[in-house]
Amino acid sequence: MAEKIPIGADHAGFELKERLKAELRKLGYEPVDVGTNSTESTDYPDYAKPVAEQVSSGLAKRGILTCGTGLGMSYTANRFPGVRAAVAWKAEIAELARHHNDANVLVLPARFVSEDEGVEILKRWLETPFDGGRHERRIAKIERPT
Ligand code: RB5
Fold first, then answer.
1. Domains of the chain and any CATH numbers
2. What whole-number distance in Å separates Cα of residue 92 and Cα of residue 83?
3. Are 101 and 84 spatial neighbours (Cβ–Cβ below 8 Å)?
4. How remote is the CA of residue 55 from the centroid of ligand 1, in Å?
5. pLDDT at 63
6. In the structure, which protein residues have their CB atom closer than 6 angstroms to any atom of ligand 1?
7. Enzyme catalytic residues
8. Per the CB 3.0–4.6 Å rule, which of 3, 55, 124, 141 could disulfide with 91?
């Protein structure tokens, strides 16, 4: 069965989201679109929350978000326990976010990457494994209150 990947965007990320959905389908994944559905102005937390919730609860293994800078989406998603949302504007950052940080939400800054760059970043993030080892200890510390 195809892996379901929740994906969300605000108005600034809407067009990139549509392209990413098509690429995900080509790669054999099933994107689960939480909106938005147009370029009409809207609020990024309304889309970051349902994606982060699905990852935090374990319903989905990973999720994808995009807004203008990626920042609002990442601030919102990273408030959910167990969510590690990484803003990536280059494929190398997505790769390191997987290798070192086990990033389970990819956030793309739609106003700062082309659609083709977005697809390249997405592919690198999807295919890169977590290194584990010393990085496990560091990730565990993120969730600890002190
Ligand atoms: C929308 O104009 C913009 O503020 C939003 O897409 C995002 O960049 C916020 O962090």
1. 4-143 (3.40.1400.10)
2. 20
3. yes
4. 22
5. 99
6. 10, 12, 44, 67-69, 71-72
7. 67, 100
8. 124
The torsion angles phi and psi of 86, rounded to 5 degrees, stand at: -115, 125
Average pLDDT for the chain: 98
Cα(136) to centroid(ligand 1), Å:
32
User: How many alpha carbons lie under 13 Å from residue 110 in its C-beta half-sphere?
Assistant: 22
**Cα–Cα distance between 21 and 135 in angstroms, integer?**
30
CA of 56 to the centre of ligand 1 (A): 23
User: What's the confidence (pLDDT) of residue 100?
Assistant: 98
**pTM for this entry:** 0.98
Q: Is the pLDDT of residue 146 over 90?
A: no
Give the pLDDT band (50/70/90) at residue 79. very high
